[in-house]
Task: structure prediction
Amino acid sequence: MEDFLYEVVEITQTIWDGVLFGSTYALIGIGFTLIFGAMGKLNMAYAGAAIAGAYVGLAVSMFFDAPIILVFAVSALVSTLMGYIVYQTCFRFIPTHNHLAALMASVGGLFLIDEVIVLATRGSPMNFPALFEDAYFEIGPFGIRGDLIFVFFIGLVSTVVLLYVLFKTRLGMATRAVAQQDVAAQLCGINIHRTNSITFSIAGLLGGIAGAMTAAAVGVLSPVIILPLTIKGLIVTVIGGLGSIPGAIIAGLFVGGFENLFLYVRGIDERDMYVVALLFIFLVFRPNGLFSKTINRD
Amino acid sequence: MKHLSKLMGASLLLIALSIPQSAIYAAPSLKVLGWGAKSGPLKSFGVNSEAALRSAVAEINSAGGVRMGDGSMAPMEVIGYEDSACKKDEAIAILRKTASTTDAIVGMGTTCSGVCQAMFGVLQKKVEDTSDSGVQMPILADTCIRPGLAKISEWSFRNVPNEITMYDELFKWLRTAYPNVKTFTGGSETDQGHSFITYTAIIVQMAVKHGFEWVGPAVPALGPKVKQGMKELQAAAKSQHWLMGDTNYTVQARKIKKQNADMILVASHPFSACGFMKEMKRQRIKPKLLVGLTSSASQETLNGCMSAAEGIIIPTGFAPITPEAKKANNIVSKAGGFLDLHSSAAWENAYLVKRAVERAAIMGRPDTLQQDRRNFRNALASISSQKGLIGPLTRDGSTGEAEKPYVYVQVVNGKWKVIHDPNS
Amino acid sequence: MDFYLNLINTIGIHTMLGLSAYLLLQTGQLSLAQAGFFAVGSYTAAILTVIFQWNIIPAVLAAMFLAGFLAFLVGFPALRVKGLTLVVATIAFSEFVRMFFYNLKWRVTRNGEEIGPDGTMGFAEIRYFSDNGWSNLEVTFFLWTFVIIVMGIVWWSDNSRSGAVLRAVGEDELAASSVGINLTVIKVSAMTAGGFIAGLSGGLYAHQVTSLDHHSFTVLLGTFAIAYPILGGLSNVFGTLVAVIFIQGLLVEGLRFLGDWRMILFGLLIVLAMNFKPLGLFDKHTIGIIKRVIRV
Result:
């Protein structure tokens, strides 16, 4: 009985930690889904730009001894800018129907970002300042990481703001219009390229927040996390449903929780195989994900 | 056709340009070519090794150079330091390029253990085996540290510390220096070959050998038979490990916290080691002793988590504790690199090359190249001892490996400090 | 000479890898699963020559069939989805395969030495060519025989009805199915053919590098596999070859003298190439120019 209770506690704790961490996956998933929903294209450089923003934020804190809030703000802003740049360099000038070339260009962008980071840091991992680092509460047998709650909270706030912008502002309406029918949107006088570049920038902002939150949660930055985050973000996007923001949120938390659970139950060697199997199950039973496109719906 | 031939012409030109132009020079010199990871996450290793190699060669040259087979003194020349990017294909391409298009006597590198393994695998296995069409070029490696690689070929040599000896002696010393430490547990990154095999086959086994008690998940008798211990350990502790790019260490840390061990082993490279140690700090896990992986005894660990790593003890093959080591450290720092257990070997290798060259009577002419390489290999295999930067080391010609002096370092107040020198 | 032969071998293997993605890309499906089939081919062929001491030709052919069969099995469920979902599904498959091999342990003792795949440590000492005294020239001829056969088959496909069918599916699925083309059969066939080719090139790759581990078969390899045909252009087999020469010959080897900046230029040039030639370096426009010049 005691063993059983122990296991229940451990599993609850494991899922809790995983779900909180999953809020970072959710933000990255939202970024991918936003761009996909708006343009039908995949931006492979996305996670790279997110992490690059975190690096610039880190540089600011190293050279100017800035407070942590400023670090996060700088990371988010830099990633916003990078989202804009990625749009202009990898998507703007490539014909809209040509998905492959845009994808490949963004892959090139990913390689570029990765190598610039390595060049700037000589490949060394870097300490990243954390907010509420010492906030660790022990409630009975449970241990609650205060900083993860903060990460989750920021994720929540970002999502609410995003949804407000998308559904309650003209800019958001333009984005949704372009996503639904770009020719008709143009006829209504909406400048597609301007709208898309703003979409990329907003996605970049979310990515920057995700990058900074991830970096703060781990405490160390290194380019080795870019590829795993990209893959996880993509899995979250698909499970959540392409183009669906609520889907990406729920899927992010879901994948975060499950991933941790698999680690606890089956160990590190099988953990990722189970995450992949989870994706396959969704693809077989619900190929459109948890929710289908809502960004295109009124 | 125009466009195609232009493109092909440009490609060929650039490929040709990339070949070191050493054949043009008439001035005799002893040529070596180095390679290591100069891009990608392991870039710092390549940068450090290159700085160490070039600095040592400059020192040798300012003291007169090396004696060639005809009695004259000639400078040693590092004709290039290429980027193998921790990729097997690239290292093999560089090896073949060096062997067939340059007159380098020896190749020096490379960084990653898996890459060394592949690279040594394309060499001719036995010098006398004419039916073996492998590459015939001596390689002297400074960083790839996974046990047992140099014996893959008679042309492959390494100057890396022996992790088995180091951890054996470390735990022996820890037993006496910290008598109140009795139990231990730990974790490692399983997708990095060097970390994981050193953890399961060496570190844990040596701790058990010296009387520390494993309190991780129950494991049937961890015997002296390495393989038995390894498999069971791997199976039992699988939720205590992580991957080298992981971002969430909460499950592993909680598991380890519950075991309440006196000593915790963190066998991981700096990024994930730091990630894990930070989680340990968050969860208020404070073991009496923290022991790490050799490759983390470097500046990168301090860059990543200076305060979370406080107190970690690691055996290493380099610390600026002797006059030679201090001098080399200064020189290499000015050249833009750091000396650590890996790059210090690159420095020592330059001097090792000098000794082998002088023992082998290298003629250094293009027509004597193959004979020179063979003589160099034989001479290198015959060298049984060398003065290393922190003490004398011995070499085994049959395996191509070295036994090096080592010290134990610990992060104290955010800096690496030598806490024990077994040779003093 | 040795170095050039090695480069030519690498180009050959990567060309085959690119062609394995080429056929499916023509049908408009973006699949990053090639790395997985390549891995299966590599390990299978290596296990057969090292542990079972097979001759290399049957080993490589067996690897090809196994990978092709796997592609066939994967094709049915995978090709029910499209677009980004397919991309992610194939990435996930590729990762699954990689993790399978990362866990694979199959050790055999021979002549007092242990050989075979060893989990995360990888699979070393795949020494078929050097153990059997193959000269570098012989290896190159051997490898390129396969490359030329594969290129020939794909060229034939491009210039025959099957190529037209593939491209029809790629252009407009609705129109294609309305003229009686069975979409599923075509897509699964393209995927299976791709699996065969990837498995074959993987088997050859294992013996060229003599050592395998899971780090070689990441999503990055799958990205390169689709990069070659996309960069080279989907209308011509030679486009893929040119793209491989461009990337492996020019960018990876030729630019070594740039030192640190080589890998940065790599990403930059890909971005530029796609912006200036979105249909690939060897698109219809370029081929038109070439044809005109040849005629002149």
Chain C touches chain A through 42 residues (CB under 8 Å). Residues 2-218 of chain C form one domain. The first strand of chain C starts at residue 108 and ends at 110. Strands of chain C lie at 108-110, 113-115.
